[in-house]
Amino acid sequence: MGDAISLAKYSIGVGDRFGRQAKPQLEACIKAANYGVDITPVWNKSNREHTIIGSNPIETRAAADEAVASLGWNKPYYVDADHINFKTVDRFIEPCDFFTIDVADWIGQPVDPTEVQNFLQQHTELAGRFRADCDVVVHIGLKYLAAIQEAARIYRYIEERKGAGKFITEVSMDETDSPQTPTELLVILASLADERVPVQTIAPKFTGRFNKGIDYEGDLEKFADEFSTDIEMIAIAVEEYGLPGNLKLSVHSGSDKFSLYEPMHGILKKHDAGVHLKTAGTNWLEELIGLAEDGEKGLQLVKEIYREAYREREELCGPYAAVIDIDAAQLPRPDLVDSWAADQFVSSLRHDPGSPVYNRSLRQLLHVAFKVAARMGTRYLDALSAAEDWIAKSVMKNLFERHIKPVFIGE
Ligand SMILES: [Zn+2]
To answer: Are residues 201 and 338 located together in one domain of the fold?
Structure first.
């Protein structure tokens, strides 16, 4: 399989809810290339987002292709079927060449105990490696084997339709309650290898909170330690189980984790390891910032979005409960927000942790409020066109200066 597609060392998950900002996202990657750092853009949009907005993966593909053609990008890029499962994968098969197989819901599902015994017999080295008794490995096997089998089932389904080597496989387990330890990660990888899933990126749930659109919350040292050990586990899995040599970690809800970027960069350099960083969510908020900055009309529109989001906050937050953390008491009343000037709105929303007016609850609520904008239909899309220049500037700057630079370039 000489021409099997293989994801480069550095890649970034980009994209935006309405598929309008592919160009400034690609410009951020072009800028990185000018610094001598190649970063592969991967446009991703989850089935959940498509469903809420009423959009289709074909549109994500079209937006990516168009940006690539118009900016003359001649390096690889992909379109990711983000967080798909067996039920939702079908409409992604044609337009996508990257599949994030989400099996978080299968963690802890019952599995035939003899299969766990078989796994254990084939992998006596695992208990030895961790100086653990077999019970530990059995315990992990019982917890994850059903999820791995499901990942394999979905992988084969895609493979039958697209052909082996024609797409990139990611396996994600991040949207669950408890993080996976490095030991668990190695067992998971060993069993993915047994199932012959050529996984190129794996998204575990890391320790601490990875809330959407805001900074990391948790023990930084513990995270760094875990991230570093996960990378070592991946190296072992590649070496011992024959998984693809470019296998790397994928960090979901990876945007805005400013306090992690410096340690992450150091660890990646130290291990000479790659990473995939998913950042798509942050772009929609930059869109709102650009609209508010563009002028009175845009500002009125974002205030209207806030008003409706505030009213529907429970319904909007429901699907994202595991990945947001809003303090309702910190949400300003819409009447108050209506009285704000553009700069007050922008500074409440913009992710500047040092700013006294930055409001992380307002930011998270707006993060999940794209449904309100989707409902506005052409009114919202026309506003995007009118404010295009401001928005493009915000999107590109946020992606390059605040994400790409600290993670991949190290500045
Ligand atoms: Zn995820």
So the answer is: no
pTM for the complete prediction? 0.95
Per DSSP, the three-state class of 308 is helix
User: Within the chain, how many helices (H) and strands (E) appear?
Assistant: 19, 8
pLDDT in tens, 154-205: 999 999 999 999 999 999 999 888 999 999 999 999 999 999 999 999 999 9
Q: Ligand 1 centre and the CA of 65: distance in Å?
A: 24
Same domain, residue pair 216 and 362: no
Backbone dihedral angles phi then psi of residue 38, each to the nearest 5 degrees: -85, 125
What's the structural domain count of the chain?
2
Helix (H) or strand (E) holding 395: helix 388-399
pLDDT bucket at 137, cuts 50 / 70 / 90 = confident
Please give the distance, rounded to the nearest whole angstrom, from the Cα atom of residue 171 to the centre of ligand 1.
10
Q: Do the Cβ atoms of 56 and 50 come closer than 8 Å?
A: yes
Q: How far is the CA of 237 from the centre of ligand 1 (A)?
A: 22
Of 236, 263, 252, 216, the C-alpha closest to 104 is 252
Share of the chain residues as helix, strand and coil, in percent rounded to the nearest 5: 60, 10, 30
Handedness of CA 351, 279, 263, 210 (dihedral sign): positive
Residue 2 pLDDT exceeds 60: no
Q: At which residue do the structure tokens 């168009």 appear?
A: 66
pLDDT digits (tens, 9 = 90+) for 328-339: 999 999 999 999
Same domain for 168 and 247? yes
